[in-house]
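forwarding from the other thread:

> can someone predict this with adenosine-5'-triphosphate?

sure thing
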Amino acid sequence: MIEVKNISKSFRDQKVLKDVSITFEKGKTNLIIGRSGSGKTVLLKSIVGLHEIDEGAIYYDNRNFTQMSIKERKLIRQEIGMVFQGSALFDSATIEENVMFPLNMFTKMSFEEKLERTNFCLKRVEVENKNTLFPSEISGGMQKRVAIARAIALNPKYLFCDEPNSGLDPKTAIVIDKLIREITVEYNITTVVNTHDMNSVMEIGDKVIYINQGQKWWEGSKEQILESDNEELNSFIFASEFFRKLGHKVS
Amino acid sequence: MSYVSDIGEFTLLMKSVFSKPEQGKMFRKQIILEIDKIGINSIGIVLIVSSFIGAVVTMQTAYNMSDPLFPDYLVGLSTRDISLLEFSSTVMCLILAGKIGSNIASEIGTMKVTQQVDALEIMGVNSSNYLILPKIIAAVFSFPILSLISMIVSMMGGWIAGMLSGSVSSSQFLYGLRYGFIPYYLYYSLIKVVTYSLIITAISSYYGYRTEGGALEVGKSSTKAVVSSSLFILVFDLLLTSLLL
Ligand SMILES: Nc1ncnc2c1ncn2[C@@H]1O[C@H](COP(=O)(O)OP(=O)(O)OP(=O)(O)O)[C@@H](O)[C@H]1O
Ligand SMILES: [Mg+2]
């Protein structure tokens, strides 16, 4: 469980996050949705400490991350897996080396053990027999999967995904979403996913948080979202023709 | 004002660069990789530039000293001193600043804008230490060797050019190379080269590391890295020369 308590973040004179409080639950896929530029990425980066927050506190299972020293944070980070918007695979390393990297850095496993774990993770995301290829030699969807495999290599307690299915076709996007959900439930991880894809919301939104202009505007489950009478939220959800029609049908 | 904050940022970066690596084995592997990229991969350009410049310097000196008052061996002697004192250290490092500096800045800059650096940080890796320190160590180790290679090759280039053009005889040239050799010049040169290797890797890494945006910014960082390293090399050339000679 991750608790975000009253955090704020500014860049120069622009206030990007304003007094945001959220509880991300364990074993669930917690989705952060919102328009482009609403502050989703900044929120995610603030939670993991890639941005220093100006006010508030972040707790990882009751451990106050905000007050930790660099050393203590490093230890928590070994419990964190993160999938970046652009995959962020190391492009000078092969698929196998990418997934094995955290194992090389933080475990004392033998090479055989590491290879076994690497292949297990790659199999879990259904990327097999691609070990010796470089990231530039596989498709975008496959890169995302490898990024997920790398993120779960150390058995994380917390998984963060920034727009894991942006730039993918709808079918592949759903496969990635489902994979994230399965992994979350299977290993009882606290998962936080940034998205502006309504398909993902309906597919895997155990808990949905709507961010607008740097503030938490709404939260609830995917079932509640369609019944909400929050105007701002509805204008976001029903921005697409498809969902507007669907909305009419529902009402 | 921005200079002050630049120096502050640079100092902070270097503080985290020079900390203890998390994983000795991975770290050594990185150093080997970097020696290959920075050292071995630069041998070609060092060979080509040094041999040509050595040849040209010899021919020019021979032309200038065609007066029979000057003994022929002076041609060998001045070729040696030019390469020992300035060419194989400063000029060679200016060339390497172009090659290695832009390479380092664009490599780290690309990793920065594609969030590979963030990915390292998230895993709990000290990214600056992991990415930059191996480059610095590899350069400090490789540059003196490259410089020695450059010295030898430029003198050989001069020797061959002198013989082929008939401007100075082989024996006179070789006599000149040995005449009045001052070993201290070699130390002076190597001290300069080690300093330059630090300048190039640290400054280029710094510019790479603070890249933000996209491909365009990576290009800009790489240009800035080369320009700044070159300027600092020239300033330190002057400083070290006034201190050491
Ligand atoms: N490093 C930064 N420095 C200054 N401003 C920033 C920085 N990062 C983000 N911002 C600003 O914060 C705001 C929110 O950006 P953010 O990237 O969080 O949006 P987002 O919700 O993730 O959008 P998208 O869906 O397009 O990814 C933007 O106005 C952006 O300009
Ligand atoms: Mg974003």
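Residues A 40-41, 85, 162 surround magnesium ion (ligand 2) (CB under 6 Å). thats all i got for now
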